Structures are given as C-alpha cells and as structure tokens.
Amino acid sequence: RQMCIRDRSTQSTGDSRRTAMLTRAASRFTSAVRPLQPVRFCAAGKSAYGRSAAHNENIVWSEALLKPEDRADLLAAGHKGVTLWMSGLSGSGKSTVAAALEQELLEMGAHAYRLDGDNVRFGLNKDLGFSEADRDENIRRISEVSALFTDCGVVTITSFISPYRASREMARKIHEDAGHMFIEVHVHVPLEEAERRDPKGLYKKARAGEIPNFTGISDPYEEPLDPEIKINTHEMSVHACVGALVHELKARGVISGGMRINNGQ
Question: Does residue 192 surpass a pLDDT of 60?
Fold first, then answer.
C-alpha cells in the first residue's frame, strides 16, 4: 500500500490511466489479505484471552484464532487430532506397534507422531525415577504434551506402561477437559509371555533384585477396565494390530474417506 502511495505521488495529474490501474491493484491486494485482528488485552478478573490457571490466576490461557476443526480443514490432512494412549507391560509390544502405526499413518498422508516412554526420559523426563510419585508425574507431563499435539491436529501415539488406573484417568481427563479425543489402547500380553520375550533383559534384572519398582514383578500393573480397544499381541501380528487401530480411527471419524488407505489394510 505504501508503494502505491509513493507511485501515485510521483505521477502527473493527468495520468488518469495509471491512477486507475494502481487503484485496481490496491483493491485486489486489500481484498486478498485478511483484515487485521484487534489486539486483545487482559483485565484483572476478566480476561479476553481465556481461563486463568487454577494454581495461579495471573497465568492466562491464550486462545487461538482457529478452532480445532478449522485447523484440520486448513491442514487438509483428512483427519482430526487424537491421542492413542497405548498402555501395557514392558515387553507387550507397545513401542513396536506404535512405531509401525506411525509409519502406516504417515504413508497414508496423516500428520502422526509417536511419543515413547523411554525416549521422553532421555530429555523431558530425565529427572524422574520410577517411584509411584515419579511415574505419576511422568504421565502428567506426557499427557499435557500429547494434548498439545492433539490440539494442533496430530494423530498422537503414546506408548507408556502407565501402570496405574488413576494416572491413565488423569491423562484422559486432561484431554477431555480440553475437548480432545482420547482413545485408550490396552496392549495386552500375559506376564509369562512378556517375561519370556524380555527384549531389554529387564525382567531378568528385576527377578535378580537389580531393578526396584519394576512393573509386573515388584510393582503392580492395573489393567484397564474399559479401554476403547484391546490388542492381544501374543495372538496378533504387528500388521494385524496396526490394522485394528486404523480401523478404530476410521470408525470414530478421526480418519476421513479422503485419506489414502493402503491395499490390504
């Protein structure tokens, strides 16, 4: 706009054709640009941004200009954001199935990302141990992270033992309170089979007393009572598990018919 004004200031008074051309160009430019949104300000006790934090009223949620469905439309990925919360014993196949599902969804054209229980302990949660309190904090942090991923339209796949029902319910509540879809997946395997697999040698160490608070040995695993889906990895192939999860996403309307579905899925 400033460029147009400078051009008009240097033209002769009689150059009506150039004036008309610049006017039309300016009109096309302004019609193509979204109007600027007014700046929003916070006022004590009444925020134009959103809710105040329960633990500190001076921390205020900054609302996006887009609703989740608007964001999904703009991304044009053919799916909604969702968290698939995969819970199960060590050695149940959570990470294996999660990695295969992530790859399948990406190949279908979805925005998908996997948050793995061990991986987040390399950085975000490296200060946490395996006491009950630390496990709860581990799940709280990753619940908040996965809810943010889901809010931005990602199919978020979490693979955490998450042994306690209360912590899994907390994860669900964090999502549902924010209006996000949460699907609990019980990755089931009998303890005997998980211990037979023992891919990291952890059960052997736990039996020898080298690892305290080990789920299934010296710490309980509270199986989900009513998960949205249960996959029995001792009876199903990885491909079959992935197919069951993709089917669930389609059945719940997360994945639309516009996505690429691989043959044989």
Answer: yes
